[in-house]
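Hey team,

Filing this mostly as a record. A colleague (T.K.) asked me to run one chain through the structure pipeline before their review meeting, and I want the input and output archived in the tracker in case anyone asks later how it was produced. No errors, nothing strange. Just documentation.

Input sequence:
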Amino acid sequence: MLEGRWKLVILFHLFGGKILRFSELERAIPAITQKMLIQQLRQLENDGIVQRIVHHQVPPKVEYRLTEWGQALCPVLDGLLKWAALKENVGHTD
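Output structure:
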């Protein structure tokens, strides 16, 4: 579900109950193409991690937020970040 280069990046931008418009996600992740962002958001939505909210107005407004299940990933991913930071601080030998 979280495979690929961009899904974790998208999730980090939505953590903490944030609700972001598509254009805000595009600006927050400048290296991702529009096509890839759409594809990744659709996959996350299909997996039940992200909710797509459509406001029927002119112009149309689409927002994204984590579902309750998606929000449950926050502590796990926070732990992963702490683990990665520990490796950087300790150093490693190969």
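Quick notes for T.K.: The radius of gyration is 15 Å. The chain has one domain: 7-90.
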